[in-house]
Amino acid sequence: MQNKKYTRSVAVNMVIANMIGTGIFVSLGYQVLPITMGGIPDPFAIMVIWLLGGIISLCGATVYGEIATTIKKSGGEYAFLSDLYNPLMGFVSGWISIIVGFSAAIALLALAAGEYFVPLLGMSAKDLVGGVYIIKVIGTAMILLVVIVHVRGIKFGGSFQNYLTYLKLALIAVFLIFPFLFIGNYHPAVVDFAPSESSWNTIFSGSFASALVWVFFAYSGWNASAYIVGSLENPKKNLPFSLVVGTVIVTVIYMLMNFVFMYVAEFHELQGKPDLGYIVAKKVLGPEMGLIFSAVFSIALLSGLSAMFIAAPRVVQEMGKDHKLFKVLGKQSESGAPVLAIMTIMVLSVTMVFFSSFKDIIQYVGITLSFFAMLTVFGVFILRARKQHDEDTVKSWGYPVTPIIFIIFSLGMIVSFVWSDPWKIAWSVGTMIPAVIIYYISKRAEK
User: What total number of domains does the chain contain?
Assistant: First the structure.
């Protein structure tokens, strides 16, 4: 009989794989733009904002550990907000998780993987195959591959996740080392990481606050293992461990990767580019070795896709259990795989692969997810007031400072970004309206 619970290693690797994806390879390209274009083109300020993102995420992670071990349901914000506020709030957040947090993020990650793989074929991202951009074809193929793996069940999918994450971490380790091993092959960028007067002016500017949306998107996924708390071995120990350890590891990796990006390449070489890893590899190793590195990296990005196909179907599955209109989505196979839920995410993400703009979707995802994560973190105050804890609850570190830090920075980023680009919040609200309508249709159907 197959094991139907995910292990601690899978939980940690889920967090790492969910976080290290499109964001780290895209965000810096927009942060190094001129400040008049919303960038923060100062090396010290950029390092500060990435460290700050890790600290904020760690604050959120420790609070999520308390919330998840108290409520004890899979499904992430859907389950948590349903309990903390009301079922409508939970349903809307679940809808957002499915559409924005996972399907859109899967589409972006698949496109990024396609972007890295295309050069190996001697083609460009704009080349067509049967009237369709080649990166969209490759991205769709990668999604289908991951789906085939996870419909086989928890044991097989968990092993696949572990191996891919180890491959990704090994590749990143090589990526961080080779610029210094092959220093004679290229001319490093002339960059000063020491703080200056302009650094502090940048840090306290509106552009810095707005630029947090890129960092929040890159760090999104720090709460990934909370989505499978109901399918996790010994959640009291393993869930908080996976959230905190995974977030710390990724924070260190992000700091090192951004340092390497800026050490190797000039700002003008990075501006607006979605494939920074390939740019750096090509500059250090030359075009041919850069191509090989790019291809391997596209395969490593599968770990992010895989992690999302573990977490996302659990949201769909929990919604299916709670709402008769979606009851069929709550079923799972004997191997523990929520097959129909997986197929639902697959259809949504493949659809988005064909209708995606990197910059707009990343900003939209970052704002929307931050809003619901902020509501969830605020919920720790509600749990404490209700005295809802039991012997399995793991209290968050640094309460009440950690949730307050997370809420203040999340709210500040959202307000700053919406002030500069109000249409993004309109997109978010527009995504929520169908959820409200469907929720009440579902309730009427049950009556």
Answer: 1
